[in-house]
Amino acid sequence: MKAFKIIWLGLLSVIIFLIIDQYLFCPAYTFNSITPFSGDSIYNPYAGAIGNKWIKCNFHAHDNCWDGITNGKGSSNDIYNKYNNLHYIIHAISNYQRIDTTHQYLPNYISSYEHGYNILKSHQLVLGANTVCWKDYFFPQTLNNKQHIIYCLHNTSPNGLLIINHPLLRGNYSLTDFKYLTGYSCMEVLHPSGNASALWDAALSAGRPVFIVGDDDCHNIFDSAKVGRICTWVNVPALSESNVLQSLRKGNCYAVAVGKDVMRNERKGDDSKMPSLQQFMLKGNSIQARFSMAANEITVSGKNGHLLYRACNTNTVLFTLGKSEPYARITANYKDGTQILLNPVFRYTELPLLQSSAGINTTQTSWRRLVGMAVLATWFGFLLKPFLHWKQQNKLPNLSPGYEYISNLNTKNSKVWYGRPVWYFRRFFYNQGFEREDQTK
Fold it and tell me: What predicted TM-score, i.e. pTM, was given to this entire model?
């Protein structure tokens, strides 16, 4: 029973420490006010696109890792071969807290891992990482927690590219989060858990230059129904990790949710039935996008997802971005369920891709940490009090009759606030030379 009590108190202590570390020791940030895109210039993410240089990518897949503790079936070679047969050029393996290096010497290799081990799966994908960041907050995360994790990931992988993974999963992110979070480049808008366009619009409406990716997040490579259903097309002048990351940072990419008919042909090795972006032009305030196949519907969305323009049964859309509109993005929907989401054009004055940073609020951070230290001191003082009291009783010998009035204070007064001064007073007399001689005799 005593051992069970010790184990229970130990686990409770760990939980209390984790809670205090997350909610009191985590830095408090001062976030900049929401400032929508503005200016006379318009940023075109496809300005440098080369027509025949689009490559098909999946950045999020898991193999059997950590001796089967995490969710993943198949080997890295299984994943490589499966996606290679579906004509994917980049098929990164992003295991939890581990960088897979199986194909590191191939030109289409990108080092990556999925960060996070919290209960609501607030995860991030780090591309181009050389080191794994182990810092995370286990319980439901606050805005400060999420921002701190982003900065920790930047510190461990300063040259890496950060993607917010599956933001709809378990309600791990809210609209408010994306109005203020900063320091990440892309969002996994298309994911098996759903289409997170509303969250993406929240970030864009707040003036955050964030671009789209779409991934399978495959955990079982042997289940064909879960492979090749979502992809990201990236435009690169030459195949290399640095070029892919640079194009993602600039938004020279788009995401596709693959419909049934396209997927059926894809399984047969025929990619010709997949619609694609053929041309994107920006001239003044006029934007034109042309696709390889006529879409059932092409929509243009603006601030907070508001519909700006719609065209049906066409492969081309032409519209003018109004001066009061901060951004616009295009979505093409096809009859078989295939959907193409392009990155937005947005207004800017200078440095269009510059994101404002969130600074640490030193006053709030200091006060919170003081409260946290006080709580920890109180808790561990409560735990250690019986041990110190037992140690005190067993360490001090009985005194000679001449000091019985002090000895009697041991058990009587050790439980009160002045017990420790009495103990020091008693030890002083015991350490006198004549007392030691008396004890020896």
Answer: 0.86
